[in-house]
Amino acid sequence: MTARRGHALVIGAGVAGLLAARVLAERFDRVTLVERDELAANESVRRGVAQAWHLHGLLDRGRRIMEDLYPGFTEEAVADGATVAEVLVGTRWYVGGSRLAAGSTGLTSVIATRSLLENVLRRRTLRQRGIELLTRTTVQGLVGDAGRVRAVTVSGPAGRRTIAADLIVDAGGRGSRILPWLSEIGAEIPVEERLDVDLGYTSRFFRHRPGQLGGQASVIVSTGDNGRGGGAVRVEGERWHVTLAGMLGDHPPTDDHGFRAYAASLSAPDIHTIVAGSEPLGEAVPYRFRTAVRRRFDRQSAPPAGLVVLGDAQCAFNPLYAQGMSVAALQAAALRDCLDTDDDLPARFYAAAADAIAVAWQLAAGSDLRHPGVEGRRTVRTRLTNVFVTRVQRVAHHDPRVARTFLRVAHLVDPPAALTAPGTLRRILLS
Ligand SMILES: Cc1cc2nc3c(=O)[nH]c(=O)nc-3n(C[C@H](O)[C@H](O)[C@H](O)COP(=O)(O)OP(=O)(O)OC[C@H]3O[C@@H](n4cnc5c(N)ncnc54)[C@H](O)[C@@H]3O)c2cc1C
Q1: Together in a domain, 22 and 148
Q2: 280 and 303 share a domain?
Q3: Tell me: the pLDDT tens digits for 205-232?
Q4: Structural domain count, the chain
Q5: Residue 176 alpha carbon, nearest atom of ligand 1
Q6: Could you identify the atom of ligand 1 that is nearest to the CA of residue 53?
Q7: Does residue 220 line the site of ligand 1, with CB under 6 A?
Q8: Which long-range contacts (CB under 8 A, 24 or more apart) does 349-352 make?
Q9: In which domain, by residue range, is 279 found?
Q10: 56 in ligand 1 pocket by Cβ < 6 Å?
Q11: pLDDT of 1 over the 60 cut
Q12: Pairing of strands 108-111, 167-170
């Protein structure tokens, strides 16, 4: 590893920003994390991440990267109240109305609220030497030109000022202003790929009682043909975190009766059983997610030096597939691998990140395009893949080995090609 000196600045102390700061601290003398929100230890949901009201599944690929960056991450989350379970052993999953065959997957699920996960990541990141956190401070724009970004302007308790940095990382999330900021300095604007899903989430907490769900820690009901799905996961504080989801405008209601009725309409009964048999804690909270957006920074002809964009600011996935935090972790790992480079760091980073994003984006977009109401180009390949995936899911209902491979791909641990490896393919086609 070559030594790198200087100052890096990260916009946003969400999951992506924290992971980026952790990686940058290995190579820069100083890393400044700039966050708009006030941050309190062990807080619950804060303004800048309203999505934290809703179920956040951490895929095992993301957990493994976090464990690598913060040894003991899983144990520390458990010490804070998270539950750890092996996927399809301590958890259950319904696809197309039927349960996937139980059996060992080798996948670990850390089950907790998004706030708990973020609190652990923040605590561990700020323990790192050289990282400074500025809260209640909002980045207002970039300073530089099409060739290089040199600084950001911020407003905060100390007023309005400019902070110079050798590398600026935008991890400002889905609401990042990166496109107008690039335009203001005359830099190239990346093209966007968009998929309108008009997804609605409604979430509510319930009191957990021992023995519910057969003692298992979570149940996921994938969106069926009617575009409705949901999850119930046992989180810290002896609570069920229940999220109901509906695509294409068919959003779950927030009133008590409507919420229960929607839970009863899912293709498997478990979530409704939990909702009907548990004491509600607080009100139901809605969230509307209209469009998945992938910004193709990797296709820019000459991205400005001194700036990289990662996390939701680069690609905001349909949350149904629980990929966002894990792809943010994959991008942080890609950034770490590129930090040796000087001049073409952004281009190299975007190329490496594109590989990680592409797999997740194709899995998600492929599933979304199975719904006839989702607009998008369906190539012959997309159609054939969807026929194949339907077959995989049907076999996974009774074959634990196929269920295992299917979920290891969904958790981004194994590549999609694992499903067409000869032994697995034979089971899928001949079953
Ligand atoms: C409803 C919903 C459910 C989801 N469920 C899952 C799931 O199950 N599993 C999963 O892995 N992912 C899920 N995601 C995605 C996940 O939340 C994100 O992908 C992940 O948190 C990474 O986001 P981020 O860090 O890029 O952005 P964010 O988490 O949005 O953080 C951005 C941060 O930047 C700060 N900020 C923004 N602008 C500025 C500025 N100008 N100056 C200073 N600070 C700024 C914000 O305050 C915030 O703290 C879900 C998303 C949604 C919307």
Answers
A1: yes
A2: no
A3: 999 999 999 999 999 999 988 899 999 9
A4: 3
A5: 38
A6: 1
A7: no
A8: 349/308, 349/310, 350/297, 350/298, 350/300, 350/303, 350/308, 351/298
A9: 194-290
A10: yes
A11: no
A12: unpaired
